[in-house]
Amino acid sequence: MPSTTDAPTDPAGAPVLGGTPVADPARLAASWLPGPDEEPMRMTLSTIDANGFPRARTLLLSEYDGDRFFFHTDARSRKVADLGADPRVALTILWPDASRQLVVQGTAMPASADECAEAYRRRSPYLQQLAWLNTAEYAQLPLAEREARWSRFREERAAPPQPPGWVGFGVRPHRMLFWAAHPDAASRRVEYVRTEDGWRRSYLPG
Ligand SMILES: Cc1cc2nc3c(=O)[nH]c(=O)nc-3n(C[C@H](O)[C@H](O)[C@H](O)COP(=O)(O)O)c2cc1C
Q1: Labelling 66: which of 25, 60, 155, 165 has CA 20 to 30 A away?
Q2: Mean pLDDT score of the chain, rounded to an integer?
Q3: Percent of the chain having pLDDT more than 90?
Q4: Angle at the Cα of 72 (from 180 to 91), degrees rounded to 5?
Q5: pLDDT tens column, 115-148
Q6: What is the rounded CA–CA span in Å between residue 62 and residue 69?
Q7: Which residue in 91, 105, 106, 112 sits closest to 167, CA to CA?
Q8: Relative to the CA of 80, which ligand 1 atom is closest?
Q9: Is there a contact between 187 and 13 (Cβ–Cβ < 8 Å)?
Q10: Atom 12 (ligand 1) nearest CA
Q11: Which one, of 157, 156, 137, lies nearest residue 146 by Cα?
């Protein structure tokens, strides 16, 4: 968890990390987000459905690699259908103590097979099993049958391999908005917009 609620700034107003003004939002995001061996954060992924409406749901942020925000899901899901038609997305990441929020707009691209395998390996046994049983057919069953199938699966397949329909996406941001609360000042946002030769930074109110 972050120890401060607002990044310190240099005289020109740039967020400062380790004494250096941050021109690149990747550094700021990496300093806010958990590393690969820490508990993954939750985020809201918003896609655009076939009627042009935003469609949002909570996902785990599997990893941020300094360039893309990765998530993993079922290939048969609505979100994957949405992304096939329009890869533009928004991600909203709220820190559990509400001290920080990071909002990203970007483009979701399929993750590599290696990246998916590594993310599946890092999932807990419960989530690995969930990846197998989270089907439309299973969802229709009464609770007793869902429990029976769940425990039967666990007995028969202690360490299930990655299921075929388990896919990943990496979101490459074109805009990143860092919101930080402050106990003694108004909250504010630092916005980074990708340009041809880097990032344009500006400060926005709450
Ligand atoms: C805390 C939390 C974490 C979740 N993490 C994931 C995830 O990492 N991947 C996933 O496919 N669904 C995850 N879900 C379920 C999704 O919110 C969603 O219901 C599901 O992916 C189907 O979404 P879709 O029909 O919009 O594609 C999570 C739900 C919650 C509440």
Answers
A1: 165
A2: 89
A3: 73
A4: 25
A5: 999 999 999 999 999 999 999 999 999 999 999 9
A6: 8
A7: 112
A8: 27
A9: no
A10: 59
A11: 137
pTM: 0.91
DSSP letter for 98, please.
S
* End-to-end Cα distance, the chain: 21
Residue to substitute in 44, 45, 57, 132 for testing ligand 1 pocket (most ligand atoms within 8 angstroms of CB): 57
Pocket probe for ligand 1: among 73, 91, 138, the residue whose CB has the most ligand atoms within 8 Å is 73
Report the pLDDT averaged over residues 83-88: 98
Domains of the chain: 16-123+162-205 (2.30.110.10)
Q: What whole-number distance in Å separates Cα of residue 143 and Cα of residue 139?
A: 9
Q: Is the pLDDT assigned to residue 18 strictly greater than 70?
A: no
Atom from ligand 1 closest to the CA of residue 47: 26
